[in-house]
Model the fold of this input.
Amino acid sequence: MNVSTWVWIATLVALTAVLAVDLLIIGRRPHEPSMRESGLWVVFYVGLALLFGVGIWVTSGAVRAGEFYTGWLTEYSLSVDNLFVFVIIMGRFAVPRQYQQKVLLIGIVLALIMRGGFIAAGAALISQFSWVFYIFGAFLVYTAINFLKQGEPDADDFSENMLIRWSRRALPLSKSYDGARITTTDAAGRRLFTPMLIVMIAIGTTDLIFALDSIPAIFGITQEPYLVFTANVFALMGLRQLYFLLGGLLDRLVYLNIGLAAVLGFIGVKLVLEALADNNLPFLNGGEPIPWAPHVPIWLSLAVIIGALGTATVASLIKSSKDKKRALIDA
Done:
């Protein structure tokens, strides 16, 4: 896929414009969005991603469009797991509900900038060292196993990372919020940062930690940096509205981690198989490709991902419904 410089520029300008309009709307009227408003925004961003995929189909063919859709769905589903931690962060820092939209949006913008660098580094590694797929694949399988062991994150799982701790020590901080402002002035006239800045740093850096799983996963679907980047952007752009739309539903997705573990495990195995099929390590088969290593088609990847996530979601809702009925009977 040959993506020219002007296509990159046009894409970045368009996506920046969408985010700027979103931020302008939030800045003019801070509020907690209703279910209807959140639902409409989620539909808008999902529709935008689907429309973008159609554009990829028209300009680059069905295979590339399939790679984009599969990558976007993978990133979107893995981003849902971020929401559990976002809820914990909002509670830990006692962020007022009407200002959480702004916190999430700016935190996600920071995450997008950092992910861009991460994607560029990953693409450079892959182009120079094909054996990195072995490492990515093994890491994803390891992460899938940890997903199964750990279950849903809770408040005790969140610990402030190095950047958050440094920010607390190095920056002049006020003790309370001042609306949705990042800076404020104290009684002595000193300019201080509000806790809102720390929350934004927490959201952005926490997402980057989650990207350690999701970026290798999408490179297992496509090695085209343009598709990797845009799939990440579209997945994160709708994450803020999804946070408010799902709300308490997150507690009912009890089998989500099993579904995500299945996705990561599948992609990890797929990466290892593709590394074997293109093998050039001298200590494996004399540096020659492994003839029996199959190529996993993109349609199969998409089917497995949808099947795993759909099964986990349906099973979660059935179990939650049964548990609720049982609790009512016991009461």
About this structure: The CA atoms of residues 140 and 268 lie 5 Å apart. The mean pLDDT is 80. The first strand starts at residue 183 and ends at 185. Strands lie at 183-185, 191-193.
